[in-house]
Amino acid sequence: MLDAWWLRLPEAARPQIRERFMKSAPAVHLGGFFEIYMHEVLRRICSDVEVDIGNDELRRRRPDIRAVSGDAGFSVEVTAILGDDAVEPKDRARVDQLYDALNARLRNRDFLLSINLRQSGPETPGKKLVAQIDRWLDPLDPDIERKRQASGERPSQLQLEHRDWVLDLEAIPLQPDLRDRSDLRVIGSRVEGFEIASIDDRDLDTLKRMDDIGPLSRGLSAKAGHGYDLREEPFMIAALCAGPFVEEMEIEMALMGQPGGSEGLWLKKDGSPRYTRVSAVLTVTELTPRSCALVEPCLWLNPWAQRPLPVDLLPWRRIEFRDDGRPVETPARRTTAEILEVGPRWPYEP
């Protein structure tokens, strides 16, 4: 299906989007996928769709897509915005290297590990950390552990400290036919985001504060202030909100600001409008190639838009704001599955 969508892109746009889709960096990969998705959806609900991607030699600064719905044209800039992470960005590569090292180097293959990452260290973990886990697992008998846990006892546990890395581990014994399999991963589950207030006071564990509003606000504002050539038509930002914890309440605060807090895309701290050239923002959460038919976009309308979007010609669920700031919701007229002409549980059911 994705191949078919990609082939329906204009020929000039295919190389760039294909290159983005093949990147391992999440923001780049998801951005490429979302461009394919948005082009396919728009070409099915609009009478005409033009793609500006790949026309760099024309030296124009235009949004990715221009669509015509009825007699009205509008521009669409497509973007993927990553959410907050339980691990600080500067530490993520080292944390992933820790997981890779455990899956590749751990000698004992009789157990699955449940890992609670309490604290990440400043250096990439090495063989010594893996060796400590092997020394802990080796005396454990997986058959005895299975019986013990079946009777209701907790799995064997280890709190491991190594060069400022702090991990809580639990050993879950594998059934006999899965033991000693080097082709299987040894990490069964992971928990991240707990911080230790003091290395000497283990009772002060707290969850890292997750902030998805900030990344959304910054990502949307960057697109809104890009200085595009918008002609005299409405302008919409289509945003794949890729944070795993993003909720609509946070999207609303990213657009309208937080009471007594930061400004939003459309409102300054003093309550005056800004970025009135952005007519609407289309948000999509939890979108993957396999969830295309299950995920429903939401269209947020800017109440101060210079050029309102022709919403009656668009089928998505939409949210408008009253003068008092209260949101009013209008249900979708067509589901994404109906637009894409697939079953509502595709690809899990025909």
Short description:
With 350 residues, the protein is α/β, with parallel strands linked by helices. The chain has helices spanning 2-7, 14-21, 26-45, 89-105, 127-137, 142-150, 213-224, 248-256, 336-340; strands at 48-51, 65-69, 72-81, 111-119, 156-162, 165-173, 187-191, 194-198, 201-207, 235-241, 280-285, 298-301, 317-321, 327-330. Residues 195-206 have low confidence and may be disordered.
What labels describe this entry?
350 residues; four-stranded mixed beta sheet; alpha/beta; 28% helix; eight-stranded mixed beta sheet; 9 helices
Would you give an account of this structure?
The protein is of the alpha/beta class and 350 residues long. The chain folds into two domains: 2-84 and 211-340; 89-207, no CATH class. Helix content is 28%, strand content 25%. The chain is built from nine helices and 14 strands. The chain has an eight-stranded mixed β-sheet with strand order 1-2-3-10-11-12-13-14, with helices on both faces. A four-stranded mixed β-sheet has the order 5-6-4-7. A two-stranded antiparallel ribbon has the order 8-9. Helix 2 crosses helix 3 and helix 7 (213-224) packs across helix 8 (248-256). The longest helix is centred in the N-terminal third of the chain and has 20 residues, at 26-45. It is elongated. The model is unreliable at 195-206 (pLDDT under 50).
